[in-house]
Amino acid sequence: MPERSQSLYLTSLKQDISGKVILEAKDLVIGYDSPLSKPMNLYMERGQKVVIEGANGIGKTTLLKSIMGLIPPLSGEVRLGDSQEIGLLRAGNERKRK
To answer: At 79, phi and psi to the nearest 5?
Structure first.
């Protein structure tokens, strides 16, 4: 079965320039009933591009949904920078917003 492409996008809610930090996660553990990851720290600044790749079932979509707040992390925290809006762009250009 072909893997569906997904993209995470962050945009500024205001016309003002957002701060330097757009996303920060500390000691984030993702999963449902059991962990799919060890604690991870993520940091993303304005202008950076990130690629998330891995085998099917490893937790890429769960990570994105946890960052978006659609799935609560098992532990840790995610903080968005000032004036950020987060969404998931799926194959077929369906847009889902938090």
So the answer is: -130, 125
